Amino acid sequence: MSLIDKNLIAAHNDRLLRHVNNDYAHLGEQLARRGIDIEAVRAKVAAFGVAIPSWGVGTGGTRFARFPGRGEPRNVFDKLEDCGVIQQLSRATPTVSLHIPWDTCSDWSELRQAAASHGLAFDAINSNTFSDQKGQAHSYKFGSLTHGDAATRAQAVAHNIECIEIGQKLGSKALTVWIGDGANFPGQQHFRRAFDRYLESAQQIYAALPGDWRMMLEHKICEPAFYATVIQDWGSSFMAASALGPKAQCLVDLGHHAPNVNIEMIVARLIAAGKLAGFHFNDSKYGDDDLDAGSVAPYRLFLVFNELVAAAHEGVSGFDPAYMLDQSHNVTDPIESLMTSAAQVQRTYAQALIVDRAALDAAQDANDALVATQCLKRGFDTDVTPILQRVRFDAGGAIDLVGAYRASGYRQRVAEARPAVAGGGGGIV
Ligand SMILES: [Mn+2]
Protein backbone atom coordinates (compact mmCIF):
# COMPACT_ATOMS: atom_id res chain seq x y z
CA MET A 1 0.00 0.00 0.00
CA SER A 2 1.39 3.39 -0.99
CA LEU A 3 0.49 6.36 1.16
CA ILE A 4 2.10 8.75 -1.31
CA ASP A 5 1.49 8.29 -5.05
CA LYS A 6 4.57 6.62 -6.54
CA ASN A 7 4.11 8.55 -9.78
CA LEU A 8 4.29 11.81 -7.88
CA ILE A 9 7.59 10.77 -6.27
CA ALA A 10 8.93 9.62 -9.63
CA ALA A 11 7.97 12.90 -11.33
CA HIS A 12 9.55 14.88 -8.51
CA ASN A 13 12.73 12.81 -8.73
CA ASP A 14 12.93 13.09 -12.51
CA ARG A 15 13.43 16.83 -12.31
CA LEU A 16 16.39 16.42 -9.95
CA LEU A 17 18.06 13.18 -11.01
CA ARG A 18 20.46 14.58 -13.63
CA HIS A 19 21.92 17.04 -11.11
CA VAL A 20 22.13 14.37 -8.42
CA ASN A 21 24.02 12.04 -10.76
CA ASN A 22 26.47 14.80 -11.70
CA ASP A 23 27.01 15.74 -8.05
CA TYR A 24 27.44 12.07 -7.10
CA ALA A 25 30.03 11.51 -9.83
CA HIS A 26 31.94 14.61 -8.72
CA LEU A 27 31.89 13.57 -5.06
CA GLY A 28 32.99 10.07 -6.11
CA GLU A 29 36.05 11.58 -7.81
CA GLN A 30 36.88 13.69 -4.78
CA LEU A 31 36.60 10.73 -2.43
CA ALA A 32 38.61 8.50 -4.78
CA ARG A 33 41.50 10.98 -4.52
CA ARG A 34 41.31 10.39 -0.75
CA GLY A 35 41.33 6.62 -1.27
CA ILE A 36 37.64 6.23 -0.43
CA ASP A 37 35.24 4.12 -2.50
CA ILE A 38 31.95 6.04 -2.69
CA GLU A 39 30.06 2.85 -3.54
CA ALA A 40 31.17 1.22 -0.28
CA VAL A 41 29.97 4.29 1.65
CA ARG A 42 26.69 4.26 -0.25
CA ALA A 43 26.07 0.58 0.57
CA LYS A 44 26.62 1.20 4.29
CA VAL A 45 24.35 4.25 4.33
CA ALA A 46 21.66 2.29 2.45
CA ALA A 47 21.75 -0.41 5.14
CA PHE A 48 21.40 2.10 7.97
CA GLY A 49 18.06 2.66 9.68
CA VAL A 50 16.78 4.73 12.57
CA ALA A 51 13.49 4.02 14.39
CA ILE A 52 10.64 6.52 14.54
CA PRO A 53 9.09 7.07 17.98
CA SER A 54 5.33 6.70 17.66
CA TRP A 55 4.88 9.70 19.96
CA GLY A 56 6.94 11.86 17.61
CA VAL A 57 4.33 12.04 14.86
CA GLY A 58 2.00 14.03 17.08
CA THR A 59 2.72 17.67 17.86
CA GLY A 60 4.65 17.95 21.12
CA GLY A 61 4.29 20.60 23.75
CA THR A 62 5.88 22.17 26.77
CA ARG A 63 4.83 22.61 30.38
CA PHE A 64 3.14 25.81 29.24
CA ALA A 65 1.07 24.85 26.24
CA ARG A 66 0.60 22.58 23.31
CA PHE A 67 -0.42 23.97 19.95
CA PRO A 68 -1.90 21.06 17.97
CA GLY A 69 -1.17 20.74 14.27
CA ARG A 70 -3.60 19.86 11.51
CA GLY A 71 -4.48 16.26 10.88
CA GLU A 72 -2.78 14.89 13.96
CA PRO A 73 -2.97 11.10 14.37
CA ARG A 74 -5.93 10.04 16.51
CA ASN A 75 -4.71 6.57 17.39
CA VAL A 76 -1.87 4.14 16.84
CA PHE A 77 -3.11 3.18 13.35
CA ASP A 78 -2.99 6.84 12.26
CA LYS A 79 0.49 7.09 13.78
CA LEU A 80 1.61 4.10 11.71
CA GLU A 81 0.32 5.79 8.54
CA ASP A 82 2.40 8.89 9.28
CA CYS A 83 5.42 6.68 10.02
CA GLY A 84 4.71 4.90 6.74
CA VAL A 85 4.92 8.21 4.87
CA ILE A 86 8.22 9.01 6.56
CA GLN A 87 9.59 5.62 5.54
CA GLN A 88 8.17 5.74 2.01
CA LEU A 89 9.90 9.06 1.29
CA SER A 90 13.06 8.75 3.39
CA ARG A 91 13.79 4.99 3.20
CA ALA A 92 15.79 5.45 6.40
CA THR A 93 13.16 4.63 9.03
CA PRO A 94 12.05 0.99 8.67
CA THR A 95 10.93 0.57 12.29
CA VAL A 96 8.64 2.19 14.85
CA SER A 97 9.08 2.34 18.60
CA LEU A 98 5.77 2.12 20.48
CA HIS A 99 4.89 3.60 23.86
CA ILE A 100 2.44 1.77 26.11
CA PRO A 101 -0.29 2.68 27.07
CA TRP A 102 -0.31 5.62 24.64
CA ASP A 103 -0.37 3.12 21.76
CA THR A 104 -2.73 0.56 23.23
CA CYS A 105 -4.99 -1.24 20.78
CA SER A 106 -7.42 -4.15 20.96
CA ASP A 107 -5.87 -6.34 18.27
CA TRP A 108 -2.08 -6.54 18.15
CA SER A 109 -1.97 -8.85 15.14
CA GLU A 110 -4.05 -6.32 13.20
CA LEU A 111 -1.55 -3.65 14.22
CA ARG A 112 1.38 -5.79 13.11
CA GLN A 113 -0.30 -6.33 9.74
CA ALA A 114 -1.00 -2.60 9.39
CA ALA A 115 2.67 -1.87 10.05
CA ALA A 116 3.77 -4.47 7.51
CA SER A 117 1.43 -2.97 4.91
CA HIS A 118 3.35 0.31 5.31
CA GLY A 119 6.70 -1.48 5.10
CA LEU A 120 7.31 -1.08 8.83
CA ALA A 121 8.40 -3.35 11.69
CA PHE A 122 8.61 -2.67 15.42
CA ASP A 123 11.68 -1.61 17.35
CA ALA A 124 12.01 -1.36 21.16
CA ILE A 125 8.80 -1.03 23.16
CA ASN A 126 8.60 1.70 25.81
CA SER A 127 6.83 1.42 29.15
CA ASN A 128 5.26 4.37 30.94
CA THR A 129 5.27 4.63 34.70
CA PHE A 130 5.85 8.38 34.71
CA SER A 131 2.17 9.27 34.49
CA ASP A 132 -1.01 7.82 35.94
CA GLN A 133 -3.42 6.03 33.67
CA LYS A 134 -7.19 5.91 33.98
CA GLY A 135 -8.39 3.45 36.58
CA GLN A 136 -4.91 2.75 37.92
CA ALA A 137 -4.96 1.51 41.53
CA HIS A 138 -1.77 3.22 42.76
CA SER A 139 -0.45 6.65 41.77
CA TYR A 140 3.09 7.29 40.48
CA LYS A 141 3.13 10.82 41.88
CA PHE A 142 5.92 9.81 44.28
CA GLY A 143 7.60 7.22 42.12
CA SER A 144 7.04 3.91 40.36
CA LEU A 145 9.78 1.26 40.31
CA THR A 146 11.41 2.99 43.30
CA HIS A 147 8.25 3.94 45.22
CA GLY A 148 8.33 3.35 48.98
CA ASP A 149 5.11 1.35 48.74
CA ALA A 150 5.52 -2.27 47.62
CA ALA A 151 2.10 -2.44 45.92
CA THR A 152 2.93 0.59 43.75
CA ARG A 153 6.25 -0.96 42.77
CA ALA A 154 4.51 -4.24 41.94
CA GLN A 155 2.03 -2.40 39.71
CA ALA A 156 4.92 -0.70 37.85
CA VAL A 157 6.74 -4.03 37.46
CA ALA A 158 3.57 -5.69 36.14
CA HIS A 159 3.12 -2.91 33.57
CA ASN A 160 6.66 -3.43 32.27
CA ILE A 161 6.09 -7.17 32.00
CA GLU A 162 2.86 -6.51 30.09
CA CYS A 163 4.89 -4.30 27.72
CA ILE A 164 7.26 -7.22 27.08
CA GLU A 165 4.28 -9.46 26.29
CA ILE A 166 2.86 -6.88 23.86
CA GLY A 167 6.29 -6.43 22.30
CA GLN A 168 6.54 -10.18 21.70
CA LYS A 169 3.29 -10.07 19.74
CA LEU A 170 4.71 -7.26 17.59
CA GLY A 171 8.17 -8.70 16.96
CA SER A 172 10.04 -6.25 19.23
CA LYS A 173 13.31 -7.40 20.76
CA ALA A 174 13.84 -4.78 23.45
CA LEU A 175 12.13 -2.98 26.32
CA THR A 176 13.15 0.62 27.02
CA VAL A 177 12.66 1.67 30.63
CA TRP A 178 12.73 5.31 31.61
CA ILE A 179 11.31 6.39 34.96
CA GLY A 180 10.59 9.86 36.25
CA ASP A 181 11.29 8.74 39.81
CA GLY A 182 13.30 11.05 42.02
CA ALA A 183 13.00 13.99 44.39
CA ASN A 184 12.15 17.65 44.14
CA PHE A 185 13.62 18.56 47.54
CA PRO A 186 16.85 17.77 49.35
CA GLY A 187 15.99 15.24 52.02
CA GLN A 188 12.84 14.04 50.24
CA GLN A 189 14.36 10.72 49.25
CA HIS A 190 16.97 8.35 50.69
CA PHE A 191 19.25 8.06 47.66
CA ARG A 192 20.67 4.61 48.35
CA ARG A 193 17.40 3.03 49.40
CA ALA A 194 15.64 4.41 46.30
CA PHE A 195 18.36 2.92 44.07
CA ASP A 196 18.11 -0.42 45.91
CA ARG A 197 14.37 -0.45 45.29
CA TYR A 198 15.02 0.31 41.60
CA LEU A 199 17.33 -2.68 41.34
CA GLU A 200 14.87 -4.97 43.08
CA SER A 201 12.04 -3.92 40.74
CA ALA A 202 14.22 -3.97 37.63
CA GLN A 203 15.39 -7.49 38.48
CA GLN A 204 11.80 -8.72 38.35
CA ILE A 205 11.36 -7.14 34.90
CA TYR A 206 14.70 -8.52 33.75
CA ALA A 207 13.62 -12.01 34.83
CA ALA A 208 10.64 -11.76 32.46
CA LEU A 209 12.78 -10.90 29.40
CA PRO A 210 12.77 -13.47 26.60
CA GLY A 211 16.20 -14.93 25.84
CA ASP A 212 16.83 -12.80 22.75
CA TRP A 213 15.61 -9.53 24.27
CA ARG A 214 17.48 -6.55 25.66
CA MET A 215 16.46 -4.22 28.46
CA MET A 216 17.51 -0.65 27.68
CA LEU A 217 17.90 1.60 30.70
CA GLU A 218 17.45 5.27 29.84
CA HIS A 219 18.96 7.80 32.22
CA LYS A 220 18.04 11.47 32.55
CA ILE A 221 19.66 14.12 34.70
CA CYS A 222 16.43 15.82 35.82
CA GLU A 223 12.75 16.42 35.08
CA PRO A 224 10.17 15.69 36.28
CA ALA A 225 12.20 15.27 39.49
CA PHE A 226 14.11 18.56 39.53
CA TYR A 227 16.40 17.98 42.49
CA ALA A 228 17.53 14.37 42.03
CA THR A 229 16.61 11.59 39.62
CA VAL A 230 17.16 7.95 40.62
CA ILE A 231 18.78 6.97 37.28
CA GLN A 232 20.29 10.37 36.63
CA ASP A 233 23.40 9.68 34.59
CA TRP A 234 25.36 6.98 32.81
CA GLY A 235 27.08 6.02 36.09
CA SER A 236 23.83 5.01 37.77
CA SER A 237 22.60 3.46 34.54
CA PHE A 238 25.83 1.46 34.22
CA MET A 239 25.66 0.33 37.84
CA ALA A 240 22.09 -0.88 37.32
CA ALA A 241 22.82 -2.56 33.96
CA SER A 242 25.85 -4.30 35.46
CA ALA A 243 23.88 -5.54 38.44
CA LEU A 244 21.03 -6.81 36.27
CA GLY A 245 23.05 -8.86 33.79
CA PRO A 246 24.18 -9.09 30.16
CA LYS A 247 20.77 -8.38 28.64
CA ALA A 248 20.60 -4.98 30.39
CA GLN A 249 22.36 -2.08 28.67
CA CYS A 250 22.46 1.71 28.83
CA LEU A 251 20.51 3.86 26.38
CA VAL A 252 21.91 7.31 25.60
CA ASP A 253 19.37 10.07 24.95
CA LEU A 254 21.47 13.00 23.73
CA GLY A 255 19.32 15.52 25.62
CA HIS A 256 19.54 13.84 29.01
CA HIS A 257 22.93 15.14 30.15
CA ALA A 258 24.26 18.16 31.98
CA PRO A 259 25.28 21.04 29.68
CA ASN A 260 28.68 20.58 28.04
CA VAL A 261 29.04 16.94 29.11
CA ASN A 262 31.29 15.03 26.72
CA ILE A 263 28.66 12.62 25.42
CA GLU A 264 30.91 10.99 22.83
CA MET A 265 33.25 9.96 25.61
CA ILE A 266 30.38 8.40 27.56
CA VAL A 267 29.53 6.52 24.38
CA ALA A 268 33.12 5.28 24.12
CA ARG A 269 33.10 4.09 27.74
CA LEU A 270 29.81 2.22 27.29
CA ILE A 271 31.12 0.58 24.12
CA ALA A 272 34.27 -0.50 25.97
CA ALA A 273 32.13 -2.03 28.71
CA GLY A 274 29.80 -3.78 26.25
CA LYS A 275 26.89 -1.81 27.69
CA LEU A 276 25.83 0.56 24.91
CA ALA A 277 22.16 -0.24 24.19
CA GLY A 278 21.60 2.52 21.68
CA PHE A 279 20.40 6.06 21.23
CA HIS A 280 17.57 8.48 21.35
CA PHE A 281 18.74 11.14 18.89
CA ASN A 282 17.71 14.76 19.27
CA ASP A 283 19.49 18.04 19.87
CA SER A 284 19.54 20.69 22.57
CA LYS A 285 20.85 24.12 23.43
CA TYR A 286 20.00 24.39 27.12
CA GLY A 287 18.56 21.18 28.52
CA ASP A 288 16.34 18.34 27.38
CA ASP A 289 15.06 20.56 24.58
CA ASP A 290 14.13 17.69 22.23
CA LEU A 291 15.07 19.75 19.18
CA ASP A 292 15.60 18.09 15.81
CA ALA A 293 18.75 15.94 15.57
CA GLY A 294 21.76 17.93 14.43
CA SER A 295 19.83 21.22 14.26
CA VAL A 296 21.96 23.00 16.86
CA ALA A 297 25.19 21.05 17.36
CA PRO A 298 25.82 18.86 14.30
CA TYR A 299 29.51 18.46 15.16
CA ARG A 300 28.63 16.94 18.53
CA LEU A 301 26.44 14.42 16.72
CA PHE A 302 29.33 13.75 14.35
CA LEU A 303 31.71 13.07 17.25
CA VAL A 304 29.24 10.51 18.63
CA PHE A 305 29.09 8.81 15.23
CA ASN A 306 32.85 8.91 15.02
CA GLU A 307 32.95 6.65 18.09
CA LEU A 308 30.31 4.34 16.61
CA VAL A 309 32.05 3.99 13.25
CA ALA A 310 35.40 3.47 14.99
CA ALA A 311 33.90 0.66 17.10
CA ALA A 312 32.44 -1.05 14.03
CA HIS A 313 35.70 -0.54 12.10
CA GLU A 314 37.71 -2.10 14.92
CA GLY A 315 35.25 -4.99 15.26
CA VAL A 316 34.39 -4.45 18.92
CA SER A 317 32.68 -7.63 20.05
CA GLY A 318 28.96 -7.40 20.83
CA PHE A 319 28.69 -3.88 19.39
CA ASP A 320 25.10 -3.57 18.14
CA PRO A 321 23.44 -0.28 19.13
CA ALA A 322 19.78 0.47 18.42
CA TYR A 323 19.10 3.81 16.79
CA MET A 324 15.97 5.82 17.51
CA LEU A 325 14.86 9.41 17.21
CA ASP A 326 13.26 11.07 20.24
CA GLN A 327 12.19 14.62 19.54
CA SER A 328 9.37 17.02 20.32
CA HIS A 329 7.99 18.96 17.38
CA ASN A 330 6.27 22.09 18.56
CA VAL A 331 6.47 24.42 15.57
CA THR A 332 6.98 22.12 12.57
CA ASP A 333 5.00 19.41 10.81
CA PRO A 334 6.25 16.32 12.71
CA ILE A 335 6.55 14.31 9.49
CA GLU A 336 8.87 16.94 7.98
CA SER A 337 10.98 17.11 11.14
CA LEU A 338 11.29 13.33 11.45
CA MET A 339 12.24 12.87 7.79
CA THR A 340 14.81 15.65 8.04
CA SER A 341 16.23 14.26 11.27
CA ALA A 342 16.49 10.74 9.87
CA ALA A 343 18.42 12.17 6.91
CA GLN A 344 20.59 14.17 9.30
CA VAL A 345 21.49 11.02 11.23
CA GLN A 346 22.26 9.25 7.93
CA ARG A 347 24.37 12.23 6.85
CA THR A 348 26.36 12.18 10.06
CA TYR A 349 26.94 8.44 9.73
CA ALA A 350 28.25 8.95 6.17
CA GLN A 351 30.56 11.76 7.33
CA ALA A 352 32.00 9.52 10.04
CA LEU A 353 32.43 6.68 7.53
CA ILE A 354 34.76 8.78 5.36
CA VAL A 355 37.14 9.66 8.19
CA ASP A 356 40.58 8.28 7.33
CA ARG A 357 40.99 5.89 10.30
CA ALA A 358 44.57 4.90 9.45
CA ALA A 359 45.63 8.55 9.23
CA LEU A 360 43.83 9.29 12.49
CA ASP A 361 45.54 6.38 14.27
CA ALA A 362 48.93 7.52 12.93
CA ALA A 363 48.36 11.10 14.06
CA GLN A 364 47.35 9.90 17.52
CA ASP A 365 50.44 7.70 17.75
CA ALA A 366 52.63 10.63 16.70
CA ASN A 367 50.96 13.01 19.17
CA ASP A 368 50.06 15.22 16.23
CA ALA A 369 47.00 16.86 17.70
CA LEU A 370 46.41 19.21 14.78
CA VAL A 371 46.42 16.56 12.08
CA ALA A 372 44.35 14.23 14.25
CA THR A 373 41.60 16.78 14.67
CA GLN A 374 41.83 17.68 10.96
CA CYS A 375 41.14 14.03 10.13
CA LEU A 376 37.81 14.40 11.88
CA LYS A 377 37.02 17.83 10.44
CA ARG A 378 37.72 16.57 6.95
CA GLY A 379 34.94 14.02 7.31
CA PHE A 380 32.57 16.51 8.88
CA ASP A 381 33.28 19.19 6.26
CA THR A 382 32.48 16.89 3.35
CA ASP A 383 29.07 17.45 1.79
CA VAL A 384 27.72 13.92 1.44
CA THR A 385 24.29 15.05 0.22
CA PRO A 386 24.62 13.29 -3.18
CA ILE A 387 25.16 9.94 -1.38
CA LEU A 388 21.98 10.39 0.65
CA GLN A 389 20.02 11.46 -2.42
CA ARG A 390 21.19 8.47 -4.42
CA VAL A 391 20.41 6.07 -1.57
CA ARG A 392 16.89 7.43 -1.34
CA PHE A 393 16.37 7.39 -5.10
CA ASP A 394 17.68 3.83 -5.49
CA ALA A 395 15.25 2.62 -2.80
CA GLY A 396 12.22 4.34 -4.33
CA GLY A 397 12.22 7.30 -1.95
CA ALA A 398 12.25 11.01 -2.64
CA ILE A 399 15.40 12.91 -3.58
CA ASP A 400 13.89 16.09 -2.09
CA LEU A 401 12.13 14.93 1.08
CA VAL A 402 10.23 18.03 2.12
CA GLY A 403 9.54 19.14 -1.45
CA ALA A 404 7.98 15.82 -2.44
CA TYR A 405 6.05 15.59 0.83
CA ARG A 406 4.55 19.06 0.42
CA ALA A 407 3.72 18.39 -3.22
CA SER A 408 1.87 15.22 -2.18
CA GLY A 409 -0.76 17.12 -0.18
CA TYR A 410 -0.70 14.37 2.47
CA ARG A 411 -1.16 16.74 5.42
CA GLN A 412 -4.20 18.40 3.82
CA ARG A 413 -5.70 14.98 3.09
CA VAL A 414 -5.35 13.69 6.64
CA ALA A 415 -6.49 17.02 8.08
CA GLU A 416 -9.84 16.37 6.41
CA ALA A 417 -10.00 12.72 7.45
CA ARG A 418 -8.88 13.26 11.06
CA PRO A 419 -10.90 15.78 13.03
CA ALA A 420 -8.96 17.44 15.87
CA VAL A 421 -9.01 15.57 19.18
CA ALA A 422 -8.17 16.88 22.61
CA GLY A 423 -5.49 15.37 24.84
CA GLY A 424 -3.30 12.51 23.68
CA GLY A 425 0.21 11.69 24.72
CA GLY A 426 2.30 14.80 24.43
CA GLY A 427 5.01 13.57 26.75
CA ILE A 428 8.51 13.20 25.40
CA VAL A 429 11.02 11.20 27.41
MN1 LIG B 1 14.38 9.50 25.25
Automatic annotation (TrEMBL):
Keyword set includes Cell division: no
Gene Ontology terms for molecular function: isomerase activity; metal ion binding
Database matches in InterPro entries: L-rhamnose_isomerase, L_rhamnose_iso, Xyl_isomerase-like_sf, Xyl_isomerase-like_TIM-brl
Superkingdom of the source species: Bacteria
Annotated keywords: Isomerase, Manganese, Metal-binding
SUPFAM superfamilies: Xylose isomerase-like
Regions that span the bilayer: none
Pfam families given in the database record: AP_endonuc_2
Protein name per Swiss-Prot or TrEMBL: L-rhamnose catabolism isomerase
Species in which this protein is naturally found: Leptothrix cholodnii (strain ATCC 51168 / LMG 8142 / SP-6) (Leptothrix discophora (strain SP-6))
